[in-house]
Amino acid sequence: SQAVHGARGYFTTAPLSTPADWAAYTTAALPAVGPGLVGLGYVERVRRSDIPVLEARMRMLGVPDFRVERAGTRDWVYAVTRIEPTATNTGVLGLDVGSGNTRRLAADAAMRSGQPVLSQRIRIIEGGREIPGFLLFLPVYKAGLPTDTPEARESALAGWAYASLRIDALTTGLLEAVDHQLDFALTDAERPDTPLFVSTTAAPDALARRATLDVYGRTWTASFHLRPDPMEFGPTSLPIIVAIAGLLVSLLASGL
């Protein structure tokens, strides 16, 4: 969230910056961002008929091989025009993140609300390979235009600052934080059959306690189960179990 808000400020005040300028900004900013961030970039919404104009502009700005993906058929194309670090995001420039439904719906929801919105679980690109993750979108509006209604925000849209995030990195250290005394699972309310993360082979439905997390337009459920170990736990352990479960929810929320 901090990363995409910083990126929105950057593109609002420097809409004509070059990819080299963006690289310099992210080199200074990204060391302060926590684990899980794969890439930080910018998406521009252009009409399909204007793709050649966008490609020519990007080539003039120093990306001689820039080309927009043309796989979709929609009138609007959501093209990635900035991404850093480039070393781990090969092949991302020019992607149309609006060609499918999952990423486009999250981007559109962010555009109309003015707030950051997280996509459903998708496959993101890191180092030329696809891994489970999400995209977090935050709209960037043209300076001086009204943004007081959803319709006005859509008209004023310039693009989106966005971050690609790894699922596994967001959960790193959680098991150690509770000393491996709990099993837990994370699921998205819209895809309960495809867990975001499972710390055990037990099915999420078998986990005994649940807590709901509202995460940037998504509703996640965190489910917990005490690992059976009669040598360590007895009837007096319930306050400890509750405390550990509460700690885990707090860690998830603060980490996100």
Largest sheet, described in full? 6 strands, antiparallel
Mean pLDDT comes to 85
Poorly predicted runs of 5 or more residues: none
Count of helical stretches: 8
First-to-last CA distance: 8 Å
Total count of strands: 10
Please state the CA-atom Rg, rounded to the nearest Å. 21 Å
Helix percentage range: 25-40%
Would you tell me the structural class of the helices and strands? Answer: alpha+beta
User: What percent of residues are in strands?
Assistant: 25-35%
Shape: elongated
Order of helices and strands: HHEHEHEEEHEHHEEEEH
Structure write-up:
By secondary structure, this protein is of the alpha+beta class. It is built from eight helices and ten strands.
Describe the structure concisely for a colleague.
With 256 residues, the protein is α+β, with helices and mostly antiparallel strands.
Defining traits:
single chain; 256 residues; alpha+beta; 6-stranded antiparallel beta sheet; 4-stranded antiparallel beta sheet; 30% helix; 29% strand
